[in-house]
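User: Could you check the structure of this?
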Amino acid sequence: MATLSTEYFENKKDFASAVSALYGESAPSQIYRFPKLANFHGEIFGCDYTDFFSSPGRIEIIGNHTDHNAGKVLAAAITVDTLGAVSRRDDNKIEVKSENYPMLKVDLADISFRQSELGTSTALIKGVADYFVRAGKKVGGFNACMDSIVPKGSGVSSSSSFELIIAEIFNVYYNDGALDAIFKAKASQYAENMFFGKPCGLMDQSAIALGGVNMIDFRSFENPIVESAAWRFDDIDVYVVATGGDHCDLTDDYAAIPAEMKSVAEALGGKYLRDVEPAAFYAAEDSLRDKLSPRALLRAEHYYEENARVEKAIAAVKDCDEKTFLEQVRASGMSSAKKLQNLYSERGDHAIEIALAEAEKIPGVKACRVHGGGFAGTILLFVEKSSSCAVNNRLNAVFGKDNVFKLSIRASGACKVVFAEE
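Assistant: Sure, the predicted structure tokens are below.
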């Protein structure tokens, strides 16, 4: 097998445009990954790769803690990814190798759940395969060498990115590429819930499977409604910043949010807040004050108002109305702080609050908010592109360059990367 160079790939038709579509402005710095992975595949498996697959990370733009109560979210795929050099094999076995990690091996003849595999990547592969089989879809063997630039612990869903690349390989190699994004998202959620052992909703996987910017309405968890929009805010950069918060056990804090929202719904005859019309909630709110905690009612207010913000924000993206979009992001952040109350835990520290206060001081930051679950973790910033260099320098100085991630919105979800010879 000949060693493949960067020039080999650059001579392929449409290579530059394919890489640009995946990575945006950072494309020039990502080209080296293709020959590196291709050659690594040859070294490990003794055969040539046949295809590249790519699966992005994601950001939650608006819709903070709404999905678990059948609400609406606005989420987007981003230009960090899990990249795989892949080849089919005909013995029904899967081997996945990432540099500096042990080989993952799965025999599709036995994809049963094992307690000992909880929390492992092997469990994710088996879980995706099990969902496909239970749904009557085909699975089969492959070799893959993978490289991920989705930062772990930064709230942009590195595990979901891995799940979706596995689902897309099964889709392309064994199901003629016919499976829709939500099917692949459900397969990935199932793997994480049932095999990996982490409860999660469907938002992360849906955003990664779909690509681009999407409003996802979870009125039906089985059949979410998706509304897509093209991202045309070319004068805005996106940043995710890891705050360095104390990641002590915050399970009780996270669990309290859906539980309190559901307690309001149950008091009004519903299972989820989505079962109760906003007008009915507001009409009954005063009568609930003696029965429920003030925080539960504030969190319900956040839920209803956040759903409305998602609707306004997706319309603003469609209309390229930057002013309204940024207003909704800022309002969402304020609601998370004051009503949802997920910036600070008594078990943790004030890292997110401090980070937001610092970010708001920086000229050029147009909107910022807590990102994802909250209590510890990350913040999301939308930055004026003309100020991006100064903002980047300031963020690096305050938080450290390893905690600052400049991103772009990516149009494609998990996919096979297509380019051809000249």
